[in-house]
Amino acid sequence: MKTARKVEEDMSKLAVDNSVEISSTKHFHAYFGKSPSFEHPYSLLGKDIYIKRAVVPGRPIMIGRSSTSITMKLPYFKPITEYKAWRNIAKVALYGKPSGSGVAVSLNNTDYEGTGVQQPQGHIVHVSGLIQNETYVFAAGGYTHEGICVNGIGDTCSNVLTLLPLSLHQLSGYLAEIAFKLGHFTIAK
User: Fold this and answer.
1) CA atoms of 69 and 115, how far apart (whole Å)
2) Which residues pair with 34 in a beta bridge?
3) Domains of the chain and CATH, by start
4) Residues 51, 128, 120: CA angle, nearest 5 degrees
5) Chain-centre distance of CA 20, in angstroms?
6) What is the pLDDT of residues 63-85, one digit of tens each?
């Protein structure tokens, strides 16, 4: 029971931390070339004053998944480095691999379509060609205008399992069950 509660707390913390980025994705449509990076107020996320300085890029955020693909949002990155030429990040690339092999994600993990391609910061990347019911991990690397990877690869995201999305009825049932367990009876109705 303690483990289940901890997992629920971790997931709710993750959802709150990434709520702005997740809500910004409703403005994304690949067909029209529309990106949340250009929509107000989400365009403010890419402003220098709102990006936290870090040694390596943050974790990419999972936006959606299917049985053979995953959609991820690239992090914004403002590096802490002693080289002034490396302080301006032009592009970010996503890297991924199957999890559980005991080795962290590296710059060589570009086996799947959509990985290893340098994109603008905050861009949404669709990774396809994945195996069903397999768990994957992803990380990002920031690049300068000259193509230099700054401070290596960033933190890996949580394990992502490739599954078909759940139906709305099933999701509302899970929500009601968890709300009841946590004592939020008005939500559980």
Assistant:
1) 12
2) 29
3) 51-188 (2.60.40.10)
4) 25
5) 12
6) 878 888 888 888 888 887 777 77
pLDDT for the residue numbered 40: 54
E-assigned strand segments in 44-178: 53-54, 61-65, 69-73, 78-79, 91-98, 118-119, 124-128, 135-143, 149-153, 160-161
- The number of beta carbons lying within 10 Å of the beta carbon of residue 31 is 5
> Which residue matches tokens 């629920």?
8
Q: Which two tokens stand for residue 111?
A: 């086996």
Instruction: State the residue for tokens 């997740």.
Output: 22
Spatial contact of 109 and 127, defined as CB atoms under 8 Å apart? no
At 184, the amino acid letter reads H
- Written as one letter, the residue type at 103 is V
CA distances from 100 to 70, 105, 132 (A): 18, 11, 16
Measure the CA–CA gap between 162 and 159, rounded to whole angstroms.
10
